[in-house]
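Quick one, tokens below. Sequence please?
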């Protein structure tokens, strides 16, 4: 009977090969949000405006508190340059530091106001199970796991994918829905190169701290599970 190979006995993958593997994990159709039914429905104009509003409200319900966990990642980061990148991310999320518009939650609230989801409507829409589940996982990975796992989970599954996903949503909204530029700002900012810049932090961390087979296995799990949880959170559109 063959003896199972221990992780510590394996050889680490070369940097470029491992990065490609992580990208392939996230890009697999079953966990790539570009192919999620909600994104396709907005792209094709078959989703209702209320479904889009419910989705982006749920997005803010977990993203706003999870953005605060970036502060703990910043505190745990051992490198000045990566720590600076995390700080820039926090300043953009909270105040629109790079985009020069406003904080991302404020932009989402403007979108919801424009659609007719006022404060009362937002307050009466509960945080759905899928949003709670993703929120809980991000809290675990960002505040309880080693720094390299946390930065890779957020970089590969969130920042790297957001630009592509939101660009697709923005294109669909502009084509099929009558929304003002103010209403579109919350989507447009996530479709901008601001997200692409933040996505570079994961590969930087891997080059320095993802150098053993043991480290790579833990990073691999963190990225895959985060991508799966993130994909499932998009199912909230079905509630509306």
């Amino acid at each position: 009977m063959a003896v199972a190979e221990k992780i510590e006995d394996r050889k680490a993958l070369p940097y470029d090969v491992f990065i490609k593997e992580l990208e392939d994990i996230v890009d697999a159709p079953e966990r790539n949000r570009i192919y999620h039914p909600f994104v396709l429905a907005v792209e094709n104009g078959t989703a209702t405006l209320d479904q889009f509003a419910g989705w982006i409200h749920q997005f803010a319900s977990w993203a706003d508190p999870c953005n605060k966990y970036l502060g703990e990642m910043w505190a745990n980061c051992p490198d000045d340059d990566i720590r600076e990148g995390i700080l820039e991310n926090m300043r953009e999320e909270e105040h629109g530091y790079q985009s020069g518009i406003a904080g991302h939650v404020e932009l989402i609230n403007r979108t919801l106001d424009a659609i007719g989801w006022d404060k009362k409507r937002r307050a009466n829409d509960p945080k759905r199970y899928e949003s709670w589940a993703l929120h809980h996982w991000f809290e675990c990975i960002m505040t309880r796991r080693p720094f390299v796992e946390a930065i890779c989970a957020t970089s590969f599954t969130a920042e790297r994918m957001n630009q592509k996903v939101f660009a697709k949503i923005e294109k669909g909204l502009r084509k099929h829905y009558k929304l003002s530029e103010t209403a579109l700002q919350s989507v447009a900012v996530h479709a901008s190169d601001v997200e692409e810049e933040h996505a570079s932090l994961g590969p930087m961390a891997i080059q320095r701290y993802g150098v053993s087979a043991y480290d790579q296995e833990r990073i691999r799990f963190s990225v895959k599970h985060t991508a799966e949880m993130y994909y499932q959170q998009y199912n909230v559109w079905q509630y509306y």
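The chain has a mean pLDDT of 92. The chain is about 70% helix and 0% strand.
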